[in-house]
Amino acid sequence: MGRIVRAELYRPNGRPIVGIGSFDNPSEFPDGNRYGNESGAYNFVAEAAEVEVDPATGAVTVLELAAVVDCGTVLNPPLAEGQVEGAIAQGLGMALTERFDWRDGAPTRPNFSDYKLPTAGVMPQLHVEFADSYEPTGPFGAKGVGEIALDPVPSIIASAVADAVGVRVHELPITAEKIYWGMRDEDSVRTTSDTGEEGDGR
């Protein structure tokens, strides 16, 4: 094959040989009852985070985050790692700073000075690895990798915060204010339990 390509490319007035192909994963779209299988090959991820919470303010700092992704055969390791890191960055924004609010049909934070996206300065130390697997229905054994690492980030940060200070935030973003008042509520519950007196609450 290589000899044929070189012969065509390097002969007088030669042109490159271009091949076009397509791949359609076996999938079954949902029926009227929303039962189906939209993907022929599912990817998976396991993640863990270490956070630091300031007890005086509730401010959260994500120190480290580890992700292990099963995306089948990794065809381009630097590109795949970049996809995972980018997804984690988006997950951090979703977890900690981004809140889409609107009024009268228009966003109240229409620019990036108000709608806070994560920047390089707030990114934690990242540890990215890939599980060794092969997807027989995928091209060259590969599966998707683009967004899977985003999904668990808010939940693992919420769990890490709960483990650190005992406050479980159920509504995103996980802000310092929510954690601060949650810690005060916890103190009030402890005070009421210990003394039999009613706590101050907020």
From TrEMBL:
Residues 11-124 form the Aldehyde oxidase/xanthine dehydrogenase second molybdopterin binding domain. Keywords: Molybdenum. Coiled coil: none annotated. The keyword Protein biosynthesis does not apply. InterPro entries: Ald_Oxase/xanthine_DH-like, AldOxase/xan_DH_MoCoBD2, AldOxase/xan_DH_Mopterin-bd_sf. Pfam families: MoCoBD_2. One of its GO terms (molecular function) is oxidoreductase activity. This is Aldehyde oxidase/xanthine dehydrogenase second molybdopterin binding domain-containing protein. The lineage of its organism: Bacteria, Bacillati, Actinomycetota, Actinomycetes, Kitasatosporales.
